C-alpha cells in the first residue's frame, strides 16, 4: 500500500516537474526577430537593445564610427569599431548576421 502511494506521489509531483523544466528551457532558447536592424540608420536606443553585449557605450561607438567613416558596407565592418573588435564580431557572427542588415 505504501509503495503504491509513493508511486502515485512520484507520478503527480516529480514527473510534471521534469516536463516543465525541459519545456521552459526550450522556450527560453527561442527568440523571434520580426525585423532586422539597419546598421546605417539605427539610433543608440535601437542598437543597445539589439544584442547582448551591445549596450549604450558600444552603440554610441557604432554611431560615432559610422559618422566618421561613412555607412557600413557589411555587418563584419563592426570589427573596425573601437570597443567591439574582431573577437567580438567573430564570437557573435551568426547573431550579428541574423539581427543586422546594411542598406
From TrEMBL:
Coiled coil: none annotated. The keyword Manganese does not apply. GO terms for cellular component: type II protein secretion system complex. It comes from Legionella beliardensis. Keywords: Signal. Residues 1-19 form the signal peptide. One of its GO terms (biological process) is protein secretion by the type II secretion system. It comes from the Bacteria. SUPFAM superfamilies: RuvA domain 2-like (SSF47781). The gene is comEA. InterPro entries: Competence_ComEA_HhH (IPR004509), Endo/Exo/Phosphatase_dom_1 (IPR051675), RuvA_2-like (IPR010994). This is Competence protein ComEA.
